[in-house]
Amino acid sequence: MSDIDLTVRSSVVGGWTVLSVEGEVDLYTAPAVREAAIGAMEAGADHLLLDLTEVPFMDSSGLGVIVACLKRLRELGGDLAVVSPPSSPPTKLLSLTGLDHAIPTHATVDEAVAGSR
User: What 8-state DSSP symbol labels residue 38?
Assistant: First the structure.
């Protein structure tokens, strides 16, 4: 296994805390995404946008992080949305599991922020 090649950057766009994830989200890297999301929520973020545009691969570990974020944000009275291009692996996985019906999924960050107003 090579070094974990995953980057998570945080920014705020239109009242949403955007976590931009770059790299594969799997058993080895999902904890880093989870930590970034928990850190954002502990810092007061209650509207979280997971930008998975630069995620070429995601497995069930990634789904677990998304579901955990959704549960925690709903408990806080907040919301979660995902940004992922229509034919990308994360979008296909969300669709296969039916999570695309529970979590708003958008093609771009701008679309997600505009759609939430």
Answer: H
